[in-house]
Backbone:
């Protein structure tokens, strides 16, 4: 579970296209909403939010302080970005009830290394980058670790059903979905002799022996 973060928000008076004034001043417009909460138009320092987003991601619970409102616990729900610069231009915070389970997409974090990959004999193929998790907001993990060091042959793979949460809750992504697998590297394929090459080798040996015999007769 990600560490709880506290964030003070300011009430936002500017709405619509007028929020561009805020962005030019380094202020990020935001909205807080959820079941029985808001919506509240708020704002915060853009650089401060960048730091918070790096720490919390989409799974870190944030305690929001909104002027004139009771404390709100929320996740970063969605972001809007500038189409060219990719700078964050707006953020939505989703308020949650700490006593009610939520469903969140949790990042997959690859750990370890397969010996086959380390030797260059195989390539790691990651199919899923997130897994859907249902749990209380305080039990949502920051990530789910997948140890690929167990993949010691090309016929082995890791499916959702092979994984377990580091906290309470359950993974709701179907258990039979593939998470990671191995594929043979091109270098390893080229190093293996083909059937035609293997079959030709005895013939080359016979031809050499026949040539040696002819030389002896001379």
Residues:
């Amino acid at each position: 579970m990600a560490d709880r973060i506290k964030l003070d928000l300011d009430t936002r008076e500017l709405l619509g296209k007028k929020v561009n004034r805020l962005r030019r001043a380094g202020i990020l417009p935001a909205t807080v909403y959820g079941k029985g909460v808001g919506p509240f138009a708020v704002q915060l320092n853009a650089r401060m939010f960048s730091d918070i987003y790096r720490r919390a991601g989409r799974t870190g619970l944030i305690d929001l302080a909104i002027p004139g409102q009771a404390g709100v616990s929320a996740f970063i729900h969605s972001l809007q970005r500038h189409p060219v610069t990719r700078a964050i231009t707006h953020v939505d915070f989703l308020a949650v009830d700490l006593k009610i389970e939520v469903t969140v997409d949790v990042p997959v974090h690859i750990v370890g290394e397969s010996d086959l990959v380390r030797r260059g004999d195989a390539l790691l193929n990651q199919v899923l980058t997130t897994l859907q998790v249902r749990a209380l907001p305080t039990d949502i993990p920051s990530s789910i670790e997948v140890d690929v060091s167990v993949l010691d042959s090309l016929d082995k793979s890791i499916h959702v059903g092979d994984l377990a949460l580091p906290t309470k809750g359950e993974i709701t992504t179907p258990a039979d979905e593939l998470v990671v697998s191995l594929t043979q590297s091109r270098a390893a394929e080229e190093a293996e002799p083909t059937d035609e090459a293997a079959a030709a080798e005895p013939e080359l040996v016979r031809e050499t022996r026949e040539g040696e015999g002819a030389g002896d007769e001379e």
Observations:
- The helical segments are 19-24, 46-56, 115-118, 186-191, 195-217.
